[in-house]
Amino acid sequence: MDARFAEDARGYTAFGKERAVGASVSDLKEFWHVGQEHVEGDLAKLYPHNVWPKELPLFRPIVLEVFSALERVALQLLRAVGLYLRLPETHFSSMAERGNSVLRIIHYPPVGADAHQEAVRAAAHEDINLITLLLGAEEAGLELLTKDRRWIGVSPPEGAMVVNIGDMLQRLTNHVLPSTTHRVRNPDGERARHSRYSMPFFLHLRSDFAFRTLPQCITAGNPDRYPVSITADDYLQERLREIGLRK
């Protein structure tokens, strides 16, 4: 498949392409990206087109239905975040409507004996976006880093999901709401012979949004960490280069 699809965060990204910031080896995963399907106006120039496998005619309608449902939930959660910070309810959700959000369908293949000694399914990292929604996976491995620097396993029960804060929301709130550090460790014993599948939804800002730190999150003890504004698209491209998904 054309390599440009991976760089545009749409379609297939091959095994061993992505790595966590600062990691010496790539993660043990491959994935498929789906973004907004119908975008008009200036945003249409910034958002890549989706890529659909012709061999699976039902893939497109099913995945778009999942994308739409998760986007609705994510925007509703952002309204709650706005109220928590004593902002208008739609303060954050209005920034993310028609955002450059991505649904990532991940396959972690069985971990073979020939895997690099330092390679893991997903090294410790924080997500780039505003918030991430993640449904439960059949295979264990997801871990979150707690405030006291302990790794704890996370496996949401049926009907529940994991919600992570990402770097974009951390930046907007001047780290009042910190980004969630997480990883996917390699399985032990016999489970290493099994694949793991995961489907996180990354809620992004509109690409033309300009970052400005929320004034109420700036104090004498917490001065503005980001005085220079940057667009969401420029920030995204910068971060994608860091993890090897953009040259």
State the gist of this model.
The chain is an alpha+beta fold. It is 22% helix and 19% strand.
Give a quick set of tags describing it.
single chain, 247 residues, alpha+beta, Jelly Rolls, 7-stranded antiparallel β-sheet, 4-stranded antiparallel β-sheet, 22% helix, globular, disordered N terminus
Structural features, described:
By secondary structure, the chain is an alpha+beta fold. The protein has one domain (4-241): Jelly Rolls (Sandwich). It is built from six helices and eleven strands. It has helices at residues 4-7, 43-46, 59-84, 93-96, 167-172, 232-242; strands spanning 11-13, 30-34, 102-108, 122-125, 131-135, 142-145, 151-153, 161-165, 182-184, 196-198, 200-203. Strands 1, 2, 3, 5, 8, 10 and 11 form a seven-stranded antiparallel beta sheet that branches. Strands 4-9-6-7 form a four-stranded antiparallel beta sheet, with no helix packed on it. Strand 6 (142-145) and strand 7 form a beta hairpin. The longest helix has 26 residues, at 59-84. The two termini are 18 Å apart. 31% of the residues are buried. Residues 1-6 have low confidence and may be disordered.
Architecture blueprint of SSEs:
Layout: H1 4-7, E1 11-13, E2 30-34, H2 43-46, H3 59-84, H4 93-96, E3 102-108, E4 122-125, E5 131-135, E6 142-145, E7 151-153, E8 161-165, H5 167-172, E9 182-184, E10 196-198, E11 200-203, H6 232-242
Antiparallel strand pairs: 1-2, 2-3, 3-10, 3-11, 4-9, 5-8, 5-11, 6-7, 6-9
